[in-house]
Amino acid sequence: MAVYTHVDPDELAALVARYDIGTVVSCKGIAEGVENSNYLLETTGGRFILTLYEKRVKADDLPFFVALLDHLARAGCAVPAMIHDREGAAIQRIAGRSACVIQFLPGISLTHPTPGQCAAAGGALGAMHRALAGYSGARDNSMGHHHWRAIAAGAGDLDSVLPGLQAEVDTELDWLDAHWPAGLPRHVIHADLFPDNVLMLGETVTGLIDFYFAATDFRAYDVAITHASWCFSDDGKRCDQGRASALMRGYLGEVALSDAEIAALPLLARGASLRFLLTRAHDWIHTPAGALVTRKDPSPFLERLRRYRADDAAALFAA
Amino acid sequence: MAVYTHVDPDELAALVARYDIGTVVSCKGIAEGVENSNYLLETTGGRFILTLYEKRVKADDLPFFVALLDHLARAGCAVPAMIHDREGAAIQRIAGRSACVIQFLPGISLTHPTPGQCAAAGGALGAMHRALAGYSGARDNSMGHHHWRAIAAGAGDLDSVLPGLQAEVDTELDWLDAHWPAGLPRHVIHADLFPDNVLMLGETVTGLIDFYFAATDFRAYDVAITHASWCFSDDGKRCDQGRASALMRGYLGEVALSDAEIAALPLLARGASLRFLLTRAHDWIHTPAGALVTRKDPSPFLERLRRYRADDAAALFAA
Lengths: 319, 319
What we know:
2 copies of one chain form a homodimer.
Chain A: H1 9-16, E1 24-30, E2 37-43, E3 46-52, H2 62-74, E4 92-94, E5 97-103, E6 108-109, H3 115-132, H4 148-154, H5 165-179, E7 186-189, E8 198-201, E9 204-208, E10 215-218, H6 219-230, H7 241-252, H8 259-286, H9 299-309
Antiparallel strand pairs in A: 1-2, 2-3, 3-5, 4-5, 6-8, 7-10, 8-9
Helix pairs in contact in A: 3-6, 3-7, 4-8, 5-8, 6-8, 8-9
Family (chains A, B): Belongs to the pseudomonas-type ThrB family.
Catalytic activity (chains A, B): L-homoserine + ATP = O-phospho-L-homoserine + ADP + H(+)
Organism (chains A, B): Sphingopyxis indica
């Protein structure tokens, strides 16, 4: 987590002047989002997040994200609205980067959600899926199933993370290729709905944030990602059935998954675990040990993968 | 700039419950202060900065900083007030660290101040010095003149930063030791009043912040530090006479420096330049090149040092 780009106060004032949001009162770099520079911007007209997009978010993708958040906000989902300037533009340039001014939402990110909070998160995910079922936007999921072999190959020496990891990943990739389903309902999904990316107050979801991995994929795969990230102990070894059932109840109250989707959940969750195992392993191998960026240990996602591989894994998704 | 310590939401709620400031609405890590973890904390009662003190700020020093800010706030200076809990305590424990809840102040830090803003900063520095003239608190300046030789020795291979730097530093240390004044007015000073540490709205100072280098030293040395950090081009090669005169006018409108202090300013500014040259060189040598922390180039302070060494340096302090 880091602010990479410094914003000059004069440039900031000129940017803010494009909008009907008053003048700058305060602007502080915040440690939110790993790949962008984020500022908490206060003006005489309210509070906003100013995001400067660094290299990982492609400028070409920005119109997709703006349209997606506009759509979700209009549909009444708890997402931060993109603010448009007087001429209707949401994407600006500042400090040599593309930038957006985004609605500030109250709420805090949880680290250890309760079952009640898992139910609320599941409900918010389901409500978002309902709003996206007929949505015409589309984006290739560059972190999706078809890309995992390439991500694994580019991650570096997996055995340097954990002896034997390369062989276990290869076996899993083969199995997933042989069994990955086709024909499940697909639309744009969040694809990264970890507790980090859900703002809550008590048991109320105040915002789903950080849509920069959003892409077209199975909606049930989004459920699997959320299950994997909300329902396990920190070490990934234990799935908390109370949290898992609450999450599924919350989601199924909004979206009626088909029998085929329900049956696919353990497999999709194996895929989700592998996806985060691989990207964390990549970052683990490529982040200098002395860097002040937190390297996230990949092994809890290997533990999840093993748990989802067990014969009784279907029970983890019982509502 | 980095947030080092994660605060658990439950621990945060328990901390906030000690105060009469309502309940948590939002809490975001902010990239302010290099050595502490800072959060912008919003509660139903207002907005605050929550600071967790990492290793560089010694727990033993915290009561000094709290008393200093309490004193300055009572004196009407534009500083963030320390918030005291229902039992009167300002220093708490959270996430294994000492922590304080501090008043949030509006304003933004400038990068390229105008003369009018320099005048305002000089005035705020002078008003603070008036409030501190009779203040009983005291703290050794671990970054002060008596420590520079040790700091230079511990910085590492200065010639690796710039060929010939070691010899130039040694010569300067000898000269400063031979000429450093005695008997100038002393009290607690800010000792780090860079533009980073002054919040402004337009030409109004809304807050002097980051007092963690505050210590007992010559008040004129504080003026010299502020002069060196507000009045030069980014590369340190050019002193802007308009900004410098404005800064001095602003300050002298609050504090009447003696002739001896005025005469000492170029020498004190050489010392100030050396102090930041040495600490930046230390960080430059000791920060891994791959780290995401911004290494501040030491050479602009070598340029300042050379400028203050010139025969006509006294003119740089003309109001």
